[in-house]
Amino acid sequence: MRNTILITSVVVVIINIGLGFLWPPAWLFLLLSLTLLIFTVRDAFQRRHSILRNFPLLGRIRWTVEGLRPYIQQYLLESETEGRPIHRMFRSIVYKRAKDSLDSMPFGTQMDTYANGYEWIGHSLSAMEIKEMDEDPRIWVGGPDCQQPYLASVLNISAMSFGSLSANAIIALNKGAAKGRFYHNTGEGGLTPYHLDNGGDIVWQIGTGYFGCRNKDGSFNELEFEEKASHANVKMIEIKLSQGAKPGHGGILPADKNSEEIASIRGVEPHTQVDSPPRHTAFNTPLEMMDFIKKLRRLSNGKPVGFKLALGRKSEFIAICKAMKKTGVKPDFITVDGGEGGTGAAPLEYTNSVGFPLREALAFVDDVLTGFDLRSDIRVIASGKVFTAFHLVQNLSLGADMCNSARGMMLALGCVQSLSCNTNRCPTGVATQDPKLASGLDPQDKSVRVFQYHKKTVHALMDILSSTGHQSTSALNRTHVFRRVNQEHVKRYDEIFPLVKRGSLLAENEDELPKAFKLHVMEASENSFMPASHLADIEEETKAV
Q: Residue 169: pLDDT above 50?
């Protein structure tokens, strides 16, 4: 086949030359035929790609079609309830709300209400008028040791760094947050002028790389943190232990996104890939972590301090709670990130197969805080595929006080799910550091869209609550949401995720601990994140059998 294609290419060029003498306009096509011949010869004699060697020139069609496949599938083939990682239905509702377009749906649901996993909330015959509801529900964040509590919106912008996103995207998000009075999480990339000069409330995330408050050796810099944390726009401090898309791995900033400006802000070498360490160096045990929380609260003059984690080994979170009880130091909030969380760049295996999904993690964190009698002083924030009001309802019912959204806010900015966040070639200017692409995003216009998406989604949340007869988001609990677990059974959340009694994990007698938590509590120690080996007893018993 290779020889046939080569001979055909040569013949085409010869015919083109012959036609040129007979019909002069044919010379115009000589450049094309010569170019194709050059590619054919090059493909036929290279040794890296077997398909190109056996089928020169024609083999390139495969790569072209393969490259177009995601776009053909997204724009021409997928249905409203398909599409990964985000369904077209959810992308569409975000776009409509961001543009303040008509967001009602005709002719009934497109969901299969009899499919396993379908969920819904029960309404009430005591439904309320929407005008009776609070249009802007808010939650105070700040425990007993907090001197500057913060009144947060029920929906906010999740962690996305400058570096992962363009400067124009950060400006648009921040201006939208300022207009709607909700907070904007910086991500681990550090504080930038784009976060601080546009009036939005900021949650400053401190990751394992301590970007923006680090010494040259990568360790934590107290003085730099204290100076920046005092900024009036910085409302809360979040310690990032892990994130859902790549828990236990650390963030990744590709070299082509690491510009001179970003490197200066982060305190790293420009034009190099920056991998955040997988764990913190400022503390090594749960007890030391409590000391670090106490230190950050002092250095920030009493602002709320919390941490973010994707749930991994259950006993490790219990160890943190044991440290809280022993020291009396408690975070003001905990952000729970699901394994389905988004990211600009992560290894496939981490994205697909590491960490607890949000629902299971959220219920566990709420249960453990309740079991250790810590829940009343700590706010829980849910993060992971939050796009609609019902996503908020699901998380709030499982124990969250509020939610963060990253990809929802990116869609509001104009993201088209091109899946090019890790290439620096984002066509909408959202997730790129290419100045030409980033300039296509107008911060003023997109900030209004971020504001409108937030406003209409919160309005939809309160509309749902009014139908259930509840006036406050705090009234939602696990008895209100139902799931079809299979074709024979429908269960409430409280049946799928059984509630625990307050203080039940403080029992001194191990036999009095709830059975589902017993081994995890026995494994956990406030002196180490690494668990003891009680779960290994199961393996030993199995071997004995």
A: yes
